[in-house]
Amino acid sequence: MTITMRSYGCTWTDPDGTPRAFAVAYDEASAHRRRDELAKAGATDIGRVDVKPGELPAPRPRTVA
In this structure, how many other beta carbons lie within 10 angstroms of the beta carbon of residue 13? Predict the structure, then answer.
């Protein structure tokens, strides 16, 4: 089985409402584990996007209710 490294970006909202983002090279399984870790920590609006190496996705704007 070949492991392919790709650059993924992730956006989410912390439990306190702060929008966050990161980008890193992950294989598919590691990207899923990271998403599960964020969900377990109480993050919401978790999204994964493909990014180019060195690119950082912009966090989603904070919504005011």
Answer: 20
What CA–CA distance (Å, rounded) separates 43 from 5? 25
**Whether residue 64 has pLDDT greater than 60:** no
* pLDDT tier for residue 39 given thresholds of 50, 70 and 90: very high
Q: Indicate the SS3 state at residue 36.
A: helix
Task: Give the pLDDT score at 42.
Answer: 94
- Three-state SS at 34: helix
Quick one: residue 45, left, alpha or beta (phi over 0 = left, psi -120 to 50 = alpha)? left
End-to-end CA distance of the chain: 47
